[in-house]
Design a protein that fits this description.
binds fe (ii) ion, Hypothetical protein af1432, single chain, two-stranded antiparallel sheet
Length: 195
């Protein structure tokens, strides 16, 4: 038994995913196809009928995961340009772009919607966010740098990686997350006090 089944999907389903995702033009053809297969897999293994149905999180269930993913990709690509030009912190598109597009690949498996209420799935009590995604990406042949960054990107992960990609993903993700939280009436991370 597995928490997902690898699924390439028919051309129409692959086209739905390809037409949604920003950043696919910046990676090699093989990486592009693997990214599409990853999203087709969690979509078809999830309870959500359409991409539009997928919620961003339990904290902002009315926000679409579709929008969050592209917002993180675009913000991450903008930050990558600044980091390279201002500080010489360069990244490879074939590593950074999959990390941005796929960081939340397991979210459709971690939530269910019942009578318009979104709650955590059974899997969400078995594996933390990031881990099922990393398992899937490993199985699809993505490199260790991508797999380990996705595995540890969550704000509550025990640690975050020390690579430029992990740093860029963190800020792109939190920047876009705060927008999702503020636009749905939640408290953004930048206004939270931990003490
Ligand atoms: Fe995440
Ligand atoms: Fe995210």
């Amino acid at each position: 038994m597995s928490c997902y089944t690898i699924e390439r999907g028919d051309p129409a389903r692959r086209q739905r995913v390809a037409g949604w995702l920003d950043g696919l033009d910046q990676v090699s053809p093989e990486t592009r196809e693997a990214i599409i297969t990853a999203w087709v897999t969690t979509w078809t293994s999830s309870p959500f009928e359409t991409l539009e149905d997928m919620p961003y999180s339990l904290h902002a269930p009315s926000y679409r995961l579709m929008d969050h993913v592209n917002e993180v990709t675009r913000a991450g690509l903008d930050l990558a340009k600044r980091a390279a030009r201002d500080w010489g912190r360069t990244t490879e598109p074939d590593v950074l772009v999959p990390i941005l597009i796929l960081h939340d690949i397991d979210k459709p498996l971690l939530m269910v919607r019942e009578r318009e209420v979104v709650r955590g799935s059974t899997l969400s009590k078995e594996l933390p966010h990031g881990v099922p995604g990393a398992m899937l990406l490993r199985e699809l042949g993505f490199g260790h740098r991508i797999v380990s960054t996705v595995a540890t990107h969550a704000t509550n992960a025990p640690f975050h990686g020390s690579t430029t990609e992990a740093w860029l993903l963190h800020y792109a993700d939190l920047f876009a997350t705060d927008h999702a939280l503020m636009s749905t009436g939640g408290k953004p991370f930048y206004q939270r006090h931990w003490a």
